[in-house]
Amino acid sequence: MPEVSAKAFLGKILLWLPLSFATWYILASLLLWPVTLLVGVVFSLFYPGVIENVEQHGTLLDVNTRLSADQAHRAQQPSGQQGGQLYFTLNPLKFGYCLPLLLALQLATPGKLVRKLGLFAIGAVILVPVQAWGIYFETLVTLVFKTGPMIAQSMGTTALSREGIALAYQLGVLILPSVTPVLIWAILNQDFMVKLAGRPVENHASTDQSS
């Protein structure tokens, strides 16, 4: 692995970021599919009586609930009603910028392109739950805080659980998408991290020891 200074590595990241974001945006609909699937499974497990399904339309998600639209305050209703049931639309891309960030980090790392893309694919799979976390809790925030108290009561929330939902949403939108890809990259490229820090990489190969 060639020597790369921290300044040069940072410059490469900045150069790769625009291309990474452009690629992510073009492929966003495809990359969002497993996230949508996971969100739907989680809601079917934890809120089967609240969420009917989550449908993907391009880069947007329609959350269809089993709740009556009449329960929501008209002034606070997030989207509308369909057959008397409440539904609303979310933009999941606000949680997906972790992918182009990981791609830029990986492409800026020295090594063969095939290995870089392979490690990125591994990281992208790990980031699916991170994106699903943000969508899941944004849905709960919309239902609990933006549709009126009747919806929150029908979901059985308490003051403590509402605080937890708000905190989890902030974590999902501000912390996880920015920190997790850096941690994943660091774990997948430990040897380069050691070289970047200026310490020799430990040689794990067996060597003969003279007595």
Short summary:
The chain has helices at 6-26, 28-46, 98-108, 113-146, 149-154, 159-188, 190-196; strands spanning 51-57, 60-68, 80-82, 85-90. By secondary structure, the chain is α+β, with helices and mostly antiparallel strands.
Topology:
Elements: H1 6-26, H2 28-46, E1 51-57, E2 60-68, E3 80-82, E4 85-90, H3 98-108, H4 113-146, H5 149-154, H6 159-188, H7 190-196
Helix pairs in contact: 1-3, 2-4, 3-4, 3-6, 4-6
Could you explain the architecture of this structure?
There is one protein chain. By secondary structure, the protein is of the alpha+beta class. The chain is built from seven helices and four strands. The chain has a four-stranded antiparallel β-sheet. The chain is elongated, with a radius of gyration of 22 Å.
- Counting DSSP E segments of at least 2 residues, the number of strands comes to 4
Percentage of β-strand residues: 5-15%
What best-fitting shape do the alpha-carbon axes yield? elongated
Distance between the ends: 32 Å
Encode the helix/strand succession as letters.
Answer: HHEEEEHHHHH
Strand order of the largest sheet: 1-2-4-3
Helix-strand makeup class: alpha+beta
Number of helices: 7
Helix fraction? 55-70%
